[in-house]
Amino acid sequence: MAEEDHRTAPLGLSEDPAERLRWHRLTARHGDRLNAIMDEYGWPTADRFGADAARAAWLIAQHADRQLDVQRRAVRLLEAAAADGRASARDLAFLRDRTLVNEGREQIFGTQIGGVRDGAPVPWPIEDPAGLDARRAAAGIEPFAAYTARHTPGA
């Protein structure tokens, strides 16, 4: 699933509505499959299923943008796994932010970029911007300025 997700991800940004629809259908199918996996096994951690499977599960949850129930459930399960040291705090931060943005709420870690203004990435709204880099550091994420510099077109 992860390979197909990576290969077809550009369709989600296509100007062609048919290509975007193909992407939405693919991510929905993958989200449904992840939901079934979570039903049977809980969060697929690297210690039980291997690093590739754990990363694929995270990617599928990250892209389940039209299935908030799947994203919310994945956040809860990933949170428990991260608390036990069986999952990455970084992955949890990215998925939590993605889910919050999809709910129309402020993100916590500033991982989700909403667009580009004057050639610079602009994040979706962030809760408590003054404490952002401290939260990012605690989750193992680079400072916000370094992150946005990497995502600046032409940088």
From TrEMBL:
The protein's matches in InterPro entries, at most eight in alphabetical order, are given as: DUF6624 (IPR046732)
Checking Pfam families in the record gives: DUF6624 (PF20329)
Recorded protein name is Uncharacterized protein
* The species this protein was found in: Streptomyces cheonanensis
